[in-house]
Each structure stands twice: as structure tokens, then as C-alpha cells.
Amino acid sequence: MSDSIDVDRWRDELESKRAEKDEFFADHPQSPIPPEERADFEGLDYFEPDPTYRVTATARVHEEPEVVPIDTTAGREMRYLRVATLEFDLERESEDLEDGTFELAAYQQESPNEQPLFVPFRDKTTGQQTYQGGRYMELEPTDDLADGDEIVVDFNLAYSPFCAYSETFDCPLPPEENWLEVTIPAGERDD
């Protein structure tokens, strides 16, 4: 973990967010869980919180963002802007896990509204321990992101898109540039 945080407080906040999401999935009319399955819904599955997967990334901001067509689960294409590339290190204590420096592209939809950075990704858990279509993160920088700025990327907040729970949704699939050749056992997982 690159920055110093109160790990107990971080863990409590993470568990609280997860409980809130479970409540939304169980009860809310806009839940992706089909209505007939909500009574049996017992909560989402997660990897244990691990501060190792809360890293500080350095942003390389793209002044003239390139349009990136991103395929969706329904076979359509959505247009996003690649607004930044986030570079980060993963250092694990276990010998069988890969250390190294990795990059993820961060996107925004073509829209004048302020939006969080959308970071869809796949890793070596995809299709095995996590949803086969990949997972998402949304990052909200405190200010306008500038070249060289640092931003926290917490993979413990990685989540499966709604189409993991119902085929009625159409979800963007992580483009190949965001396929990480590393195992990230953090965030939501498949049961």
C-alpha cells in the first residue's frame, strides 16, 4: 500500500459500503437481481479486504483524448474517451504472485458532464473467481487530474457490472489494453 492510511478505519468503511450495496441489491426496485430471485439473495461475494490492493497510481493525462470504441455484452459498441493512463506498482509478499508495474486506461463517456473515471479491467481471476466479462472501478479525483498527479486505485472496490446478474443489461467489456496479466484477488467475486 503506497500511502499511509488507518487500515482499521479503511476496512470498516469498505465493509459499510459492501453492506449498503447488499441492501440495494436485495430491496431496491432498480436492483439488477431479478425480482423473483431477491427473496433468496443473501449478499454479494467478496474477496477479503486487503490493503495490498489499494495502490497509488501516477496519472498520465491525455490532453486530446482518443475515442476508444468499447464492445458491450450485447454485441454493440460504445464510444469512450481515453482521458488518462494510470501507472501503478503491485508488490506482494507471496512468491507465487507477480510484482511489477502495470497500467490501466481510464475513460469517460463523450459527454460534457463531469463524470468519474471509468476503469474497466480484466485480470487473471476473470472467468474463474470473478465475472467472465471483467470488473469495473470508478475513480473520482478530488481536482482536475493533471499529468503526474497521484490517484488512489483501490481494487477492493472493484465490482461486477449489472449484466453479471441479469442478461437484461448491456455492459461495456474491458478493452484489451486493460487486460492485466496479474492476479488481483480483491473486490467482488463470483460465488
From TrEMBL:
Pfam families: DUF1684
Gene3D superfamilies from the UniProt entry: 6.10.250.1680
Region spans: Disordered: 18-38
Domain of life assignment: Archaea
UniProt protein name: DUF1684 domain-containing protein
Species this chain originates from: Natrinema versiforme JCM 10478
